[in-house]
Design brief:
The chain has about 140 residues and is α+β, with helices and mostly antiparallel strands. The chain contains two helices and seven strands; from the N terminus they run E-E-H-E-E-E-E-H-E.
């Protein structure tokens, strides 16, 4: 990292970055742009792990790497930029946040529904394309 403090992000129109499932069979896909903080992600991961109760079945595709700065309260104008306060992950519409593999569909349904409640964006659950049955990615 060359510079410690970043500028705020500026979005263009809809991007489809990380929009396909790679290694899991079920996934959670974001429908709008949002900045996810580390607290959002930790609470979502806890909800998923509480229901699945298995290790190494959750693939996390989002990692907060962008630091936002904030000045302390009651500070006058000027005197430079504030210190880094929190880390965020900029989510673009259509990107996949979590993937789950090797778990029953009933449990995945329940886990991802609870996970959606913890995130500040609209999400949908996505199923992977199956060549054997020739069915495309289903959303439910």
């Amino acid at each position: 990292m060359k510079y410690k403090k970043y500028f705020k992000l500026k979005y263009n129109n809809n991007y489809f970055y990380y929009d396909s499932i790679y290694s899991g069979s079920f996934a959670l896909k974001a429908k709008s742009r949002v900045n996810l903080t580390a607290n959002h992600l930790n609470s979502a991961i806890k909800n998923i792990k509480r229901i699945i109760k298995k290790k190494n079945f959750l693939i996390i595709r989002c990692n907060p790497f962008w630091s936002l700065t904030q000045k302390p309260r009651d500070v006058r104008m000027g005197r430079g930029k504030g210190s880094p306060a929190l880390k965020i992950f900029p989510v673009k519409s259509g990107s996949i946040l979590f993937e789950i593999k090797g778990v029953e569909e009933r449990l995945v349904n329940k886990a991802l529904k609870y996970c959606i409640l913890r995130l500040p964006t609209k999400c949908i659950m996505v199923k992977k394309y199956d060549k054997r049955t020739d069915s495309f990615k289903g959303c439910w």
